[in-house]
Specification:
This protein has 959 residues and is of the alpha/beta class. The protein contains 37 helices and 27 strands. The strands form seven sheets. Strands 9-12-8-13-14-7-15 form a seven-stranded parallel beta sheet. A six-stranded mixed beta sheet has the order 1-2-3-4-5-6, sandwiched between helices. Helix 6 packs across helix 7 and helix 14 packs across helix 15. The chain starts with 9 loop residues before the first helix and ends with a helix.
Length: 959
């Protein structure tokens, strides 16, 4: 906790702050073999002449003090002074002790020989470390422990020049990987401490990092390395890389199956964990094991790691977890795949790089243009449905569909959704089924040509992901639920050996991983050949990270049966993402989010200002109490808190709150409030409730009736959602019922509101939110956009959507001007001569409209021109060919009730084969995948008349 009163003297500062910080680092101040206070330096013995002593101000002490210096603290190891500490009182800048400490260190070096001791100087809040003659001074967040100092002293004596160290090309052997490692090594020798590598996804950022780690370990520049990731799946992947490339260096945590080591072990070499986990470990520690007043064994010194690697360095690092990087003093390396023009300025600044000028960069364009290519290029198939583009409007649905909705208890007039509402306010099984069918038809297949290669679906939500998986099972039951699986971070069976992610990476099934955020970045599966964007993406950075899931090329030595080759991958874009980024090249990044503790603190400040203005001392007292409680909850071991230590000391004093003026409120709002973002142990529902109660109090103080009403209703809604069936909630039943009565709201005092927040906010985690359920529909949807089609040389490349738009506009206009078209629209059948004349007219348009092209565009196999034109006009709906195939097989199976389970599975496989290949030869039925059901294919499953019926069904569909 920050001391609330200013340190008026150096002695007070030392006793209260510096001694405590040294003990925290594990120094025994009463052990003279570790620490000597007022360490005596005999200048005459050191060979410093008395005149120089006088010039430096050290000759004014006569008697026994003449010709002597007194270092505030000397830190010893093996009988030698390895560091000196110069102390200043908190009212002075720590930097005032720099030259003084240097002088002490130089003279101690003259006395004991060897290398100059490390120099530290502090005013109790700010601490600086200077490795003299090696690197410039750096601001640090604590003192090194005895073991830290011993290693730091040993390291500078035994480390090898990096320029002569060889890079292990078995780990990182590509030219650009070697170049990236060399750029960092040269920077380290040039006294730089922060680096940023920008490398396209799939070019081996992790391998490059492993190559660098290997060099620094061998050269004795590093003993312990921290590899930070933003998700558990990436932690497991990095640990696999440790095992493969650095097997002789023990790592933490160990992972065996689904079991992950939990206890912190300070005796490993390589550490890999997520940003939140490391932040919690840092903030949980109070003192190292064995120290006076020792805290948890998980205490981690700021000097513990020599190299800190931040994987996927992006906005969230400096927005939320920058304090993790700031805590440690080691060399820092950021890794990112984000193109340099789209990296945030703050990310460059975090790693001391000029904007758009990282330490090293290797782009996607460079990788695919290499011969042979280092990355796989891609093709894009754009698929959009009618409902995605036009929305779902009950009033314009066909009468038969409206009747169907009414029979299901739905009012068509209440169905009014935009396309962007899909999977947010409404879900339609027909739209999801269309996406699944298009994927199964167009995806890059495995060598059998029947199943998709490894594929990732990016879903909108967890519910959407599960609905897509259910449709895979419903439409393709022959795969027994193994074809597509949902991978979400909350499912503990996703992780570890044999988990779903491991199965997707290393086994034949599942072929399709349906992901919600989990597989968007970092996860490495080179066999992925299909990506399906079943969601809109607005962040350019995230969009390219998602595309990067398919860019990895296959290692010829690690080919798998389901993916023996990969020269490209396919992106099926179902939400117009490529068009969006053509219009908005930088995407639409979300605005900076304000952390909940900061919002609460600022809400209390608003209440305080309003109460001061209104002269409401009761409200002032409660606002001040809340603000001070928030400050007391700040974590001790946090770089952000340490940076603001002087300010926090000032606002921690009682006197600060006794006479608050505009400048004091401004300090709290602009300087102190942002520090609250690192407050730990935050429960979001509880803090949102407390913030609204505080806002309500402000509205009452300012007599803002409209705001009071809105906030009252919001608070009541949350209170009503508390389940009394939970014991801890039931304990507050009297208050919960009182708050829902009119009497409680007659004139609630600041004390009433504070009591409400104190008692009910912790219960908000149990709320059972009463949300309006998402409407579920099952309406057949139509594909209206697909991959580019060629309509003659002049219109080569005209998209399906553009062609259909032109056709539909022309045909609708023709109804007004052409008698034959008018009669078709009215349901009449034209004569043959009339129809030929109309066909000639349509074929002569720009672009041409023919029966064959309409069948192709609307995916209808056999309909004639009149029915196609009615379909274009929306007067008759023609089932698509996939729908016709599915219906035909369903009817066949329903009509043959004596079919065996094997025969039904054969028919389901045959249906899938037809949908994917759109053709059939009889010899196909004697080959895979049919021979996987029976060695003799169809002849082993059907005989005689049954065999002929199946052949007639299949051949009739592809005719």
């Amino acid at each position: 906790m920050i001391h609330p009163t200013p340190m008026t003297s150096e002695a007070t500062t030392r006793k209260t702050l510096i001694d405590a910080a040294l003990r925290l680092a594990g120094w025994q101040l009463d052990d003279p073999t570790q620490v000597v206070e007022e360490y005596v330096i005999d200048l005459v013995e050191a060979g410093v002449a008395p005149p120089i002593v006088a010039e430096r101000g050290f000759g004014k002490h006569y008697g026994k003090h003449y010709g002597k210096q007194y270092a505030d603290y000397a830190l010893l190891s093996r009988g030698r002074v390895v560091a000196v500490v110069e102390a200043k009182k908190t009212a002075k800048a720590a930097e005032l002790g720099q030259e003084q400490a240097l002088t002490y260190a130089r003279n101690i070096q003259r006395l004991q020989g060897g290398r100059i001791p490390f120099v530290l100087y502090t005013n109790g809040h700010d601490i600086y470390l200077w490795e003299v003659d090696e690197t410039p001074p750096i601001k640090v967040h604590g003192f090194p422990s005895p073991l830290d100092l011993e290693w730091m002293d040993q390291r500078r004596q035994t480390r090898n020049p990096l320029s002569v160290e060889l890079i292990d090309t078995a780990i990182a052997g590509r030219d650009y990987q070697i170049g990236a490692i060399r750029a960092v090594l040269e920077g380290i020798e040039a006294k730089r401490r922060n680096f940023l590598l920008v490398m396209a996804t799939g070019t081996g950022k992790t391998r490059t990092a492993m190559g660098l780690i290997d060099v620094l370990l061998r050269a004795r520049w590093a003993k312990r390395v921290l590899f930070l990731v933003d998700r558990v799946a990436l932690r497991d992947q990095a640990i696999d890389a440790f095992r493969e490339h650095l097997p002789d260096s023990p790592h933490w945590p160990r992972i065996e199956g689904t079991r992950v080591e939990q206890t912190w072990d300070p005796n490993r070499r390589l550490y890999c964990t997520t940003y939140p986990t490391m932040l919690n470990l840092i903030q949980a520690g109070a003192a190292p094991p064995g120290a006076s007043g020792a805290g948890p064994a998980s205490w981690i010194s700021p000097y513990f790691f020599d190299l800190i690697i931040a994987d996927e360095s992006h906005r969230s690092i400096y927005n939320v977890y920058r304090s993790v990087l700031d805590w440690f003093t080691g060399i820092k390396l950021g890794l990112t795949a984000t193109p340099r023009d789209h990296i945030d300025h703050d990310t460059f600044a975090l790693f001391d790089c000029d904007t758009h000028d990282p330490t090293y960069a290797y782009t996607f364009e460079q990788a695919i243009s290499h011969d042979p290519p280092y990355l796989s290029d891609f093709e894009v198939l754009r698929v959009r449905s009618k409902f995605q583009l036009e929305g779902i409007k009950g009033g314009v649905l066909p009468p038969a569909v409206q009747k169907q909705l009414i029979a299901e208890g739905k009012d068509p007039s209440e169905i009014d959704f935009e396309g962007t509402d899909l999977e947010y306010r409404v879900t339609n099984a027909g739209t999801n089924a269309l996406i699944v069918r298009e994927f199964m038809e167009e995806s890059i297949k495995d060598p059998t040509g029947t199943l998709p290669g490894k594929s990732i679906f990016f879903a909108i939500s967890k519910g959407h992901a599960r609905r897509l998986a259910a449709l895979f099972d419903k439409l393709y039951p022959e795969h027994a639920g193994k074809l597509a699986r949902v991978l979400v971070s909350e499912d503990r069976f996703v992780y570890g050996k044999g988990g779903l992610l491991d199965q997707f990476k290393h086994q034949d099934m599942p072929r399709v991983a349906i992901s919600v955020d989990m597989l968007d970045t970092g996860v490495d599966v080179p066999e992925v050949v299909n990506l399906v964007f079943a969601k809109p993406v607005y962040s350019y950075t995230k969009f390219w990270q998602m595309i990067g899931r398919g860019t990895r090329v296959l290692d010829p030595g690690k080919l798998k049966p389901w993916c023996p080759a990969k020269d490209r991958f396919l992106i099926i874009d179902c939400w117009g993402n490529f068009e969006f980024f053509q219009m908005h090249p930088k995407g639409r990044e979300p605005g900076e989010q304000v952390a909940l503790p900061v919002r609460l603190f600022r809400a209390r400040l608003d209440q305080l200002e309003a109460a001061l203005a209104a002269g409401r001392q009761d409200a002032v007292a409660h606002a001040v109490a809340g603000l001070r409680a928030d400050l007391a909850a700040l974590p001790r071991n946090n770089a952000v808190v340490a940076e603001a230590a002087a300010t926090l000391q000032r606002v921690g004093a009682d006197t600060f709150w006794q006479h608050l003026g505009p400048a004091d409120l401004g300090l709290l709002r602009s300087v102190v409030a942002p520090v609250l973002r690192v407050r730990s142990g935050v429960e979001s529902k509880a803090m949102r409730f407390e913030t609204e109660v505080v806002d309500l109090g402000t509205a009452l103080v300012t007599d803002n009736g409209e705001a009071v009403e809105v906030l009252r209703e919001s608070v009541l809604e949350q209170v009503r959602e508390l389940p009394l069936s939970v014991n801890v909630v039931a304990a507050e039943q009297a208050l919960i019922e009182a708050v829902q009565g009119a009497d409680w709201w007659e004139a609630p005092s600041p004390a009433d509101l504070a009591d409400l927040a104190r008692r009910l906010a912790p219960l908000m985690r149990y709320r059972q939110q009463r949300r309006d359920p998402m409407m579920s529909l099952d309406l057949a949807d139509l594909r209206v956009v697909k991959e580019k089609l060629d309509f003659g040389t002049e219109h080569a490349g005209l998209t399906t959507a553009a062609y259909r738009e032109r056709v539909e506009a022309y045909v609708r206009a023709l109804v007004e001007d052409n008698e034959v078209m008018r009669r078709i629209a009215e349901g009449a059948e034209p004569g043959e001569d009339e129809l030929q004349a109309l066909a000639a007219l349509l074929a002569g348009q720009d672009p041409a409209i023919t029966e064959d092209l309409l069948r192709k565009v609307y995916d209808v196999r056999s309909a004639r021109l009149v029915r196609l034109l009615r379909h274009v006009l929306g007067l008759e709906r023609l089932p698509s060919w996939p729908e016709s195939v599915t219906a035909a097989f369903d009817e066949f199976i329903a009509a043959h009730t004596t079919l065996t389970e094997l025969q039904i599975r054969f028919l389901q496989t045959l249906r899938t084969f037809l949908l994917q290949n759109r053709r059939l030869e009889r010899k196909d039925l004697l080959d895979a995948p049919f021979t996987q059901l029976h060695p003799r294919g169809i002849r082993g499953v059907f005989r005689g008349g049954e065999l002929e019926e199946v052949l007639a069904l299949a051949e009739g569909l592809v005719a």
